Amino acid sequence: MAASRPARVAIIEQFQADGITHIFGNPGTVEQGFLDELRRFPDIQYVLALHEAAAVGIADGWARSTRRPALVQLHYGVGLGNGIGMLYEALRGQTPMVVIAGEAGVAYDGMDAQGSADLVGMAKLVTKWSTRVVNPRTSLRMLRRAFKIAATPPYGPVLVVLPADVMDAETDEAAVPTSFLDAASSPSQDSIAQAARLLSAARHPIVIAGDGIHFSGAQDALARLAETWGAEVWGADWSEVNMAADHPLYRGELGRMFGTSSHRITAAADAVLVCGTYLMPEVFPAMDGVFAPGAKVVHIDLDGDAIAKNYPVDLGLVADPRHALGLLADALEVEMTPRDRAAAAERMRDGAAHKAEALAEARARDLDNAESLPLSTAVFAHELAKHLPEDVMIFDEALSSSPAISRYLRANRPGHWHKSRGRTLGVGVPGAVGMKIANPGRTVIGFAGDGGTMYTLQALWTAARYNIAAKFVICNNGRYRTLDDNVAHYWGTQGIAEHPLPEMFDISYPAIGFSQLAASLGVRSVRIEKPQQVRDAVAQALDYPGPFLIDLAISRDS
Question: Belongs to which family (predicted)?
Answer without folding.
Answer: Belongs to the TPP enzyme family.
